[in-house]
Amino acid sequence: MLQYKTNATWCDLAFVSEYSNFPLLTRDFYGKGQLLVLTIPDDFSDLYRIPGTVNKLIHQVFSAKLPVYLDMQPRCNLFLYDNDTFGVLSYHNSPSEAGIILNDPTVTGICDLENGQEYYPVPGAKGERQIRISMCNGTYRFFRLLRSKK
């Protein structure tokens, strides 16, 4: 169990019960940087029980400098490449929907590499730009980032 005993450590996410709490994500500031600690349970499969809203926050925190991140239930993967493309893989047991959050202001949308369909964001919570796509179990979908021309 992770224990922290400093007023400098902030607990961003915690599991809370009637008699105790357990830090899931903590943050420490040091100089101009910060240290993020994500506590992984002894049984890794317990990560699949994390609610979608918590999963989204974890993706958001660790993807702060990336052009996109995911908003969906656990059991998914995001693969980012250095040529403005990315892939999404779902391990869900049934068809599901993935939210792709555009984290870079120069990204205006995405293009499905298989069929050429373009998707553009709609405003989401707190001003985020989100694109919803359908996912089938065990299927990869690959996309190219569409950027504004300057």
List the helices and strands and how they pair.
Layout: E1 9-16, E2 21-30, E3 33-38, H1 52-62, E4 68-71, E5 76-80, E6 85-90, E7 96-102, E8 107-112, E9 118-119, E10 122-123, E11 129-135, E12 140-147
Antiparallel strand pairs: 1-2, 2-3, 4-7, 5-6, 6-12, 7-11, 8-9, 8-12, 10-11
Structure write-up:
The protein is mainly beta and 150 residues long. The chain has 1 helix and 12 strands, in the order βββαβββββββββ. The strands form 3 sheets. It has a 5-stranded antiparallel beta sheet with strand order 5-6-12-8-9, with no helix packed on it. The mean pLDDT is 88.
Short description:
This protein is mainly beta. Helices cover 7% and strands 47% of the residues. 15% of the residues are buried.
Question: Which descriptors apply to this entry?
Answer:
single chain; 150 residues; mainly beta; five-stranded antiparallel β-sheet; four-stranded antiparallel β-sheet; 1 helix; 12 strands; 7% helix; 47% strand
